[in-house]
Every structure is written in C-alpha cells, then in structure tokens.
Amino acid sequence: MAIEPYRRLLALPGVRTLLLVGLIARIPSTAVGLTLTLHVNESLGLGWFEAGAVGTATTVGMAVGSPLAGRLVDRYGLRPVLLATGVAQLAFWTSAWALPYPVLVVASVVAGLLALPVFSVIRQCLAAMVPVEQRRTGFSLDSMLVELSYMAGPAFAAAGTVALGSTWTMCLVAAGLAGSAAALILLDPPTRSDEEKEEAAEKVPRGEWLTPGLVTLLGTASAATFILTATELSLVATMDRAGDTAWIGLAIGVWCLYSLLGGFVYGGLPRGFSPLVLIGGMGLLTVPVGLVGGGWWWLVVALLPAGVLCAPGLSSTVEAVSRWVPAGARGEAMGLHGTALLIGGGVAAPIAGAIIDSAGPGWAFAAAGLVGVVMVLVALPFWRRSAVAVKEPQPVAV
Known about the structure:
Blueprint lengths: L2 H8 L4 H29 L4 H29 L1 H18 L5 H13 L4 H12 L5 H30 L1 H22 L6 H8 L4 H4 L2 H30 L6 H20 L7 H12 L9 H7 L1 H4 L2 H15 L5 H29 L2 H29 L9
Helix pairs in contact: 2-3, 2-6, 2-7, 2-8, 3-4, 3-5, 3-17, 4-8, 6-17, 7-8, 7-12, 7-16, 11-13, 11-16, 11-17, 11-18, 12-16, 13-16, 13-18, 16-17, 17-18
Pfam families: MFS_1
GO molecular function: transmembrane transporter activity
Main location: membrane
C-alpha cells in the first residue's frame, strides 16, 4: 500500500521532526521574493522593472552563495553557517525597509549571498538520516512539503502587505528567518550518518565528483524549473487574455495539487525512475498544452499529465545527487543543485515573457517543454557513463 513506505520513513529517529521544522522554516524563505517586489512597487512607488531588478539581484546572490554555504557546512558544520546566515538575514530584513532603492539593490545581492540555506540543509540532513533504500520516499515527501511552503509563503507576503504594510511584513520575514535559523541550530540534525563520518574524513577532490554526468544532471534539474516557471507564466498569460484573471489563483492551486498527488504516489512506488524519464516526460507533455481551447478549466485539465510529474521529477534529481556525491561533499553538491534550480527559474521568466509577447502563450508552453526534452537528450550519454561509474545503486537508467 502506498502509505506504508511513508509510515516506515516517519518512524525513523528524528525524521518527522526534521521534516516538520523544514516545512515551517521554508515558509519565510518563500515569502522573500514577493515581499521585496511589493515593497519596491508600493512603498517606494517604483515600477515593475525596478521591482524585478531587486528580485534578480537577490537571485544572483543566492545562486552564488548556495554552493558556498554548502561547502562551509561540509567543512565547519551546520551551526556556524546557520548562525552567520541567520544574523545576516535579520540585519537585512530589519533595515531593508529604510534603504533607498540603489542601496537596496546592492544589499539584496549581499542578502542573497548570505541567504539561509534551509532548502539544501534539509535535503542534506535527510540524506544523512534516511537509508539509501528509503531516500526516494524521503525526498518525495520533502518535495511535497516544499510545495506547501511555496503555497503559504507568497500568500503570507501578499496578505501581510495588504493588512500591515510592507515595513511590518519585512520585519515579520526577518523574525521568521531568524526563528528558522534558531530552530535548526537547536535541532542540529546530522549532516552525515555514522557510517559516512569516516568517509567524510577523507577529502575527495572536487574533480572526482563534479563530473560531466553530475553537471548534466544539474542541467536537467535546471530544465525542470524552467518548465515550471514558463508554464506558470504561460498559464497566467492565457487566462489574463481570456478575461479569467479571477480564477488564476484557483488554477495554480489545482496545478500544485497535481504535483502533490504525483509526489505522494511516486514516493510509495516499490521502484523509482530516472530523472531523465520523469523530466523528459514532463517536457513532452507540456508541449501540446497551449493547443487546448474551450476555457481555462480545460487548460487546467491539460496540465494534469505534466503536473503529476513535477514533484517526482525534482525529488529524483535530489536523490541522484545524494547517491552520486560522497558524504564529505554533499553540502556543496546540494548547494549546486539549489543553484541549478534558481538558474532554471530565473532564465525562464524573461524568455517565456518574450515568447508570450511576440507569439502568444501557446508557443511559450511548447518552448518550455522543448527545453526540457533537449536537456534530457544532452544529458543521456553522460548519464549512462555516470551510472556505471558510481558505487551505490542508481535510479533506473534510460
């Protein structure tokens, strides 16, 4: 039965607490982008371009800082990194409301560089606490919890800005990020299992684990977030042009529900699939979505096949990274995985927007899916070689 693997997972010591803390700790991190956007647009009275520039600045900082934070966790442990990044976030978010726009842009880069690495840390610790044979279930459940965090965080940012104003909302984000750092410091979950501690003592040169296979795997993860971001923009644009703006929130909510359902089923399967199969399938099934007509509800139905592959596709890339990389470098590798996800989403927004403006949202759906398919084809030969080279059993090869 599908529920049994989750029961066994949650019975493992510390896993239930880690996942619950991870769910709550990620909510303020997912509120960051929209909070900054609304502050620039409403409190500073600037345009959407300026608001987007601040978001881009934060993303650039996070993309650079994510693997650096992971490397520091590998070298010095979890608590020093959480303390430093927690203090940095508290300092930025309690003062950002008073900064003039040019200073805010620069400070956003620094804040992104010193972002709380809650996403990669939870995954790194989960890999240490869960046996290899249960990691697919663990990462599937974690992926579903990430979906819930992304549903709650932006909603909190929007509601807080309307009810309290951007200044108080930014202060609440500061409290949330500092509280998340404090909770993880107190919890202090292991970043390596007892068996992996001896392995981690032996330093492995980066060139031995950062292989072409791993690079293309990260590229495939990036393609997945490209598909998701471009699909979201295309969905919003399609509904806006049809005059169905009032139903956008419901449509996106149903789409997220597809992903949750897919992640739940995937985590309970007796055997997993290669990320190339899952993300390639997600891409192929996204290509024809733009051809659907007859109302927004049919568009949402058309998103079902690709939607159920979202959480499984992303969780399978995390599982592959945890298997391919030695324990002593897992933090840096998870940081690189986070960077790949950020790059995919960051690149997708302007490209999909340009296609929507010039050719229409239907073509943006097609382009999003094709990007995923092309990246899978690029990764395929490297994946086969990497699957032979690693010591631990790998996800099913294509």
